[in-house]
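Continuing the series of single-chain predictions for the mutant panel. This is the parent chain; the variants come on the following pages.
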Amino acid sequence: MKLHNVYFSPKGTTKLCADCIADSLDLERSDYDWLTAKEPEKTEIPSEDVLLFSMPIYGGYIPKLCAERTAVLKGSRTPAIITAVYGNRHYDNALIQMKELLEKQGFVVIAAGAFLAEHSIFPAVAAGRPDESDKAAMENFAQTCRGLLAKREQWENREIELPGNPDYDASAFKGVPFKPDGDETCTGCGACVSVCPRGAISRENPRVTDETLCISCGACIRICPEKARDYHGEAYQMAGKGFAEKCAAYRNPETFYII
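Parent structure:
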């Protein structure tokens, strides 16, 4: 059995969660980084293998470009483990969205987890997550998944139940109004240009962001060697304060299994 570890991790936290789970599954594995792979190759995953599909959650859904990219994955009643990584507000309909997208591609979701990470736009929210308690929860999640993978006959004809609205409309989320840009410390090195998954940063003037393309993923903020890119402005500061107050309560990971 081989593990196919697919993730999209602009700020690095989704990868951290995916790696923690993948390491605990202790299987031979192949990693597929959908941030660096601008056009992921078609991947057929046989029924005897397993898919680990980990995504950050924006506005209660996975990024639109990732939803579209699930078309490159092809299963054959292949077991899938899905992981939603969110910044302490809520994951809303993300798990059922991920389940439906993968089922269309021939996968059977046997387990799902919603785990916490530092918020990608307002980093004061869920700062330091995933913490040691989160990592322990991920390890326990992986161990339960190992047990499920060894008992295929018990779940082959069953379907996992997940929270969320089955009549969800992922297109209802139009993104957030805040987009990162560069300040006067930008040296024009172009690191942000190469990492942006939507091509929203001009190589000629990397301080500027095309707001019609940007999905506010924060990859450019993380990679900038001068720390020149960030969210700026009074409106952002005010929104951050209100969001932090609203989402201050500590949330725990949630896990779901097919049996």
